[in-house]
């Protein structure tokens, strides 16, 4: 199990130092292309209902894992040391903690110098809503919500699935690192599917249903496990951890997603803010519930605080979950 933990730590540190790698064959980009190809093929076959969506999910997840396995075997044929390097790179490419912070920092900087147009432009790069009419407070709240929500599927869930799969297969005498990374590849494939077809509109309400539900299922337990990491990270940062917990249990299920409201609710309480509320998207206004009971007047300082909170939570989760994995070995 030590190798499994070392692979995770290496991938985590690479993400913190270099951020998400930008290249044509990034796993997420390849998964996106597979989704597009499979969707186009199924639509040509008029297979666009729930069954078609199930076939799409199977094709994308199976293809992603098979491609990972094939490349890993190819690396092993060249040199055994390349296998671990490849696994580290795959895990590094699947963690997005650093990017959450890097994408929100320009928004905070623009707001600090009262450049609302620039802040809206930077925000548009990371959210799906219409940012053109947001004021400075709405822009800051949207950035905070994005960081808090994506902490789950961009970081915590992959870490939990990697270590869980590695621990289980270790006790079953399998290859912990392979199964750990394979589980993350599977998770990222589902996450990519959800981001591309998991919409509740006329085009995808049936076709994307299986992908959306699978994403909900996979994030269900990690969303609820996010509380202790967020709580204990908030204390040294002098955020209101108790208010965050109270808001977490009171408001987490108000969100339309069964999982997205957990970290957002904690962030709202810990930062003393109200998050959510009516939001404009390209398809129209979405009347989201408010999370938290604080001020609506979020600003650049709050963005910096949520960045520190998710970074500290990320460190805590990797350290504590790695130690737990080694202890039960």
Structure, described:
This protein is mostly helical. The chain has one domain. It contains 12 helices and 2 strands. A two-stranded antiparallel ribbon has the order 1-2.
Using brief descriptors, characterize the structure shown.
mainly alpha; 329 residues; 2 strands; single chain; 72% helix; two-stranded antiparallel ribbon
Summed up:
The chain has 329 residues and is mainly α. The chain has 12 helices and 2 strands; from the N terminus they run αααααααααααββα. Strands 1-2 form a two-stranded antiparallel ribbon.
Secondary structure topology:
Blueprint: H1 2-18, H2 27-44, H3 50-78, H4 80-94, H5 97-112, H6 116-124, H7 136-171, H8 176-197, H9 209-234, H10 241-251, H11 261-271, E1 275-281, E2 284-291, H12 300-327
Helix proportion of residues, in percent? over 70%
Q: Which ranges are low-confidence, i.e. pLDDT below 50, for 5 or more consecutive residues? A: none
- Biggest beta sheet attributes: 2 strands, antiparallel
Q: What Rg do the Cα atoms give? A: 20 Å
The N- to C-terminal Cα distance equals 7 Å
Strand fraction: under 5%
Q: Averaged pLDDT, please? A: 92
H/E series, N to C? Answer: HHHHHHHHHHHEEH
- Count of the domains: 1
State the total count of DSSP E strands.
Answer: 2
Shape estimate: globular
Strand order of the largest sheet: 1-2
Determine the structural class based on helices, strands and strand pairing. mainly alpha
- Give me the number of helical elements: 12
């Amino acid at each position: 199990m030590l190798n499994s933990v070392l692979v995770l730590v290496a991938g985590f540190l690479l993400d913190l130092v270099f951020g998400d790698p930008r290249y044509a064959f990034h796993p997420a980009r390849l998964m996106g292309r597979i989704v597009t190809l499979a969707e186009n093929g199924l639509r040509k076959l008029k297979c666009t209902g729930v069954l078609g969506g199930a076939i799409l999910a199977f094709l994308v997840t199976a293809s992603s894992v098979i491609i990972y396995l094939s490349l890993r075997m190819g690396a092993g044929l060249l040199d055994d040391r390349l296998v671990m390097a490849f696994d580290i790179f795959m895990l590094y490419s699947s963690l997005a903690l650093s990017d959450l912070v890097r994408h929100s920092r320009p928004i905070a900087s623009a707001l600090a110098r009262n450049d609302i147009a620039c802040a809206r432009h930077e925000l548009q790069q990371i959210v799906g809503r219409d940012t053109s009419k947001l004021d400075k407070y709405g822009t800051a709240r949207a950035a905070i919500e994005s960081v808090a929500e994506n902490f789950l599927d961009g970081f915590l869930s992959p870490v939990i699935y990697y270590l869980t799969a590695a621990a289980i297969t270790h006790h079953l005498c399998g290859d912990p690192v392979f199964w750990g990374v394979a589980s993350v590849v599977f998770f990222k494939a589902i996450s990519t599917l959800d981001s591309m077809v998991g919409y509740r509109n006329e085009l995808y309400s049936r076709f994307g249903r299986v992908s959306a539900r699978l994403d909900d299922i996979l994030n269900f337990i990690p969303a609820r496990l996010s509380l202790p990491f967020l709580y204990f990270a908030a204390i040294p940062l002098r955020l209101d951890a108790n208010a965050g917990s109270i808001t977490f249990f009171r408001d987490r299920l108000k969100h339309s997603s069964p999982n997205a409201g957990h970290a957002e609710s904690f962030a709202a309480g810990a930062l003393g803010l109200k998050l959510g509320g009516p939001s404009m998207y390209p398809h129209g206004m979405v009347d989201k519930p408010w999370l938290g009971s604080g001020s609506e007047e979020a600003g650049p300082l709050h963005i910096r605080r949520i960045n520190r909170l998710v970074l500290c939570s990320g460190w805590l989760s990797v350290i504590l979950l790695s130690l737990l994995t080694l202890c039960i070995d």
